[in-house]
Amino acid sequence: MASARTSPRAPKRARRSHAERTAETRAKILAAVVECIDAVGFQRTTAVEITRRAGVTWGAVQHHFGDKDGILLAVLDDSFARFAARLADVDVEGLSLERRVERFVERAAEHFASREYASTFEILLDHLRRDGARPETSWQLAMSRAWDREWRRFFADARIARRRHAVLQRYTIAVLSGLASTRLLEGPSARIRADELALLRDTLVRELRGR
């Protein structure tokens, strides 16, 4: 009698840990919020839309983030974490000042042109409309410190006053956020403002040299 053929067993799929499942669910919800704001705008980013796009229940959302404000704060945190990661990925050792400025502006501009930044912008606008100007929140303070930390890693050798560093940081944010806002207003056909970015790079090189 012929021996029965045995098919090879498929390898068992490793079970994910609770932490992995939690991280995956959180990431899906955050991605759904960003996708929703990008597709239909902030005002139409409802609980129903978020759960539909994330493929989870509202109970799951509340479990991870508490309420809608909790989700929006988490989106802000995640957006800035992505921005910081873009900068932290650059090894500045041995790079000339011109090259460091180029890489800094390049990575920062990538973030300001992203869907994550667009969602951040709309969330912050909504908070401003609802609450008006308020003192800096803990999130804003943490963001400022993280930005300053990366800025100084790139430009630690610049022999200019601390106050001047702060001015240049605010100027850089103003230029990049202004260009991002212009792109949002112009819509999908908006072009990257290469000339304006070149002017920003030239200005930073000149200023960081103390000229």
In short:
The protein has 211 residues and is mainly α. The protein has helices at residues 18-40, 47-54, 58-65, 68-88, 97-112, 115-131, 138-155, 162-186, 194-208.
Structure in words:
By secondary structure, this protein is an all-alpha fold. It folds into two domains: 21-66, Arc Repressor Mutant, subunit A, CATH 1.10.10; 72-208. The chain is built from nine helices and no strands. The chain has helices at residues 18-40, 47-54, 58-65, 68-88, 97-112, 115-131, 138-155, 162-186, 194-208. Helix 1 (18-40) crosses helix 4, helix 1 crosses helix 6 and helix 3 packs across helix 4 (68-88). The protein is globular, with a radius of gyration of 22 Å. The model has no long low-confidence stretch (mean pLDDT 84).
Provide keyphrases for this structure.
2 domains, Arc Repressor Mutant, subunit A, about 0% strand, mainly alpha, single chain, about 210 residues, about 70% helix
Write the layout of secondary structure elements.
Blueprint: H1 18-40, H2 47-54, H3 58-65, H4 68-88, H5 97-112, H6 115-131, H7 138-155, H8 162-186, H9 194-208
